[in-house]
């Protein structure tokens, strides 16, 4: 390792050259002050020179302590002028600035108190609505206008919005009832003493969601969709006597008084695969009728045709003379002549099997029908099926005074929307 000090290679008393400055001293003249004074003794070993330059390690411990300054020096008070200046900055502000700061602080506290009073009043109003209307959940109450305290002292609120989710209405639930009340007079002595309110005018709407209908009336796996502005389509399956039958119906929505919605259900029919179609009712085209494919099979299969012609009530309903029937039962040629006519297929499709075949289970089995299924269909009358598919409901009555009525009904993609209006409604009285 190269030493950082210059090492003398000649005695210190050796004469220098005749004033001649070597080249390295000329080039590095700026380093002459960086080197320590060379010792007088020349060292043959550079490490000896380094050892001589190093301080004695015992000097740190073996040295005399210098006397400390006197401890009884006179006491002088600390200088707090900097902190005082900090504390007096606000005092040094102009009077106008102080007034602005005070106004801002007071306004912040007033706004905070106003919002607290507003939240308290909204909470109290929601609880009273929940108790009086027997709701499962508290409604959302939003009192508009600022500041609120001035309205409380005036005992009049300009506008209040109320949203009630999941309102029970007969056998179904209303997804949402939202209303906006105006000209609301408050009954109470202050912000924390809310006793009730009187609503001058109210307008709102009711939504009967198709999703809720599908869930609540979905025991039959029937789904509801809108068609037009006043029609709802019901499509799905209906379990009857252990069989899942395809069901379809059309419901027309209309008002029923001031608080009710009624449905006129038509086009109801149950499809028994490709065998038959059941339409509840007593008219000519209603009842259980074979499909065209089933009637074609009866006309082409001898066993089914003879089983059908063996029932006197069916023969009478078909209008076939007894002599022709006896000949058809005795001769396959005459049977083919009778059943091969186009009129025979149409006449078979016109038979109401609920009327003429209920007492003949063997015939039903020949036709591929379950007698228990027909028994279940016979009990599924038009009123019973219509009741299972109805969407009618009544709005709940108001808990206090006032009137509320339906204005119009429209069918939308998401459900049935009803507009409502009311006046003179009292709450909490």
The secondary-structure element order is: HHHHEHEEEHEEEEEEHHHHHHHHHHEEE
Low-confidence stretches: 5-36
Q: State the helix count.
A: 16
Biggest sheet: strands, sense, closure?
7 strands, antiparallel
Overall pLDDT confidence: 77
In terms of quaternary structure, what is this?
A: single chain
Compute the number of strand runs.
13
Content of β-strand: 25-35%
C-alpha termini separation: 103 Å
Shape designation = elongated
Helical residue percent band: 25-40%
> How large is the radius of gyration?
52 Å
Structural class: alpha+beta
Protein described:
By secondary structure, the protein is α+β, with helices and mostly antiparallel strands. Among the domains are: 166 residues, no CATH class; 99 residues, no CATH class. 35% of the residues lie in helices and 30% in strands. Strands 5, 6, 7, 8, 9, 10 and 11 form a seven-stranded antiparallel β-sheet that branches. α7 crosses α8. The chain is elongated. The two termini are 103 Å apart. About 7% of the residues have low confidence. It comes from Streptomyces formicae. InterPro entries: DUF2993 (IPR021373). This is DUF2993 domain-containing protein.
What's a quick, concise take on this entry?
The protein has 16 helices and 13 strands.
Question: What tags apply to this protein structure?
Answer:
single chain; 429 residues; alpha+beta; 13 strands; elongated
Topology:
Blueprint: H1 23-27, H2 46-53, H3 81-87, H4 95-133, E1 140-143, H5 148-154, E2 156-169, E3 172-190, E4 193-209, H6 210-216, E5 222-227, E6 231-240, E7 243-256, E8 260-272, E9 276-279, E10 287-290, H7 292-300, H8 302-309, H9 312-318, H10 322-330, H11 332-339, H12 342-349, H13 353-356, H14 361-366, H15 371-379, H16 382-389, E11 393-394, E12 403-411, E13 415-427
Antiparallel strand pairs: 1-2, 2-3, 3-4, 4-13, 5-6, 6-7, 7-8, 8-9, 8-11, 9-10, 12-13
Helix pairs in contact: 7-8, 7-12, 10-11
């Amino acid at each position: 390792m190269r030493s950082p000090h210059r090492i003398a290679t000649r005695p210190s008393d050796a004469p220098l050259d005749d004033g001649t400055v070597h080249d390295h001293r000329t080039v590095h003249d700026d380093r002459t002050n960086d080197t320590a004074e060379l010792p007088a003794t020349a060292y043959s070993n550079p490490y000896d020179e380094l050892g001589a330059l190093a301080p004695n390690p015992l000097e740190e411990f073996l040295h005399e302590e210098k006397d400390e300054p006197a401890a009884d020096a006179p006491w002088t008070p600390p200088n707090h002028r900097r902190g005082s200046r900090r504390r007096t900055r606000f005092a040094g502000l102009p009077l106008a600035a102080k007034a602005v700061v005070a106004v801002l602080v007071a306004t912040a506290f007033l706004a905070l108190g106003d919002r607290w009073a507003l939240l308290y009043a909204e909470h109290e109003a929601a609880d009273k609505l929940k108790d009086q209307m027997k709701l499962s959940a508290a409604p959302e109450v939003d009192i508009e206008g600022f500041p609120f305290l001035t309205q409380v002292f005036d005992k009049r609120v300009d506008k209040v919005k109320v949203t009630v989710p999941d309102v029970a209405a007969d056998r179904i639930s209303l997804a949402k009832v939202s209303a906006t009340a105006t000209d609301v007079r408050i009954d109470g002595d202050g912000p924390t003493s809310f006793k009730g309110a009187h609503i001058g005018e109210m307008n709102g709407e009711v939504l009967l969601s198709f999703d809720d209908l599908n869930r609540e009336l979905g025991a039959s796996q029937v789904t509801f969709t809108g068609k037009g502005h006043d029609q709802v389509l019901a499509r799905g399956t209906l379990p009857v006597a252990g069989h899942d039958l395809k069901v379809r119906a059309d419901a027309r929505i209309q008002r029923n008084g001031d608080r009710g919605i009624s449905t006129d259900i038509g086009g109801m029919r149950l499809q028994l695969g490709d065998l038959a179609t059941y339409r509840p009712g007593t008219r000519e085209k209603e009842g259980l009728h074979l499909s065209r494919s089933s009637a074609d099979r009866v006309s082409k299969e001898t066993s089914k045709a003879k089983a059908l012609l063996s029932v006197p009530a069916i023969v009478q309903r078909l209008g076939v003379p007894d002599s022709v029937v006896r000949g058809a039962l005795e001769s396959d040629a005459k049977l083919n002549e009778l059943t091969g006519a186009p009129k025979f297929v149409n006449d078979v499709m016109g038979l109401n099997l609920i009327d003429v075949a209920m007492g003949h289970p063997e015939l039903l089995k020949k036709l591929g029908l379950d007698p228990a299924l027909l028994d279940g269909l016979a009990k599924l009358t038009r009123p019973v099926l219509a009741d299972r598919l109805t969407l009618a409901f009544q709005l709940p009555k108001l808990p206090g005074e006032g009137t509320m009525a339906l204005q119009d009904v429209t069918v939308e993609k998401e459900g049935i929307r009803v507009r409502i209006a009311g006046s003179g409604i009292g709450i909490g009285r």
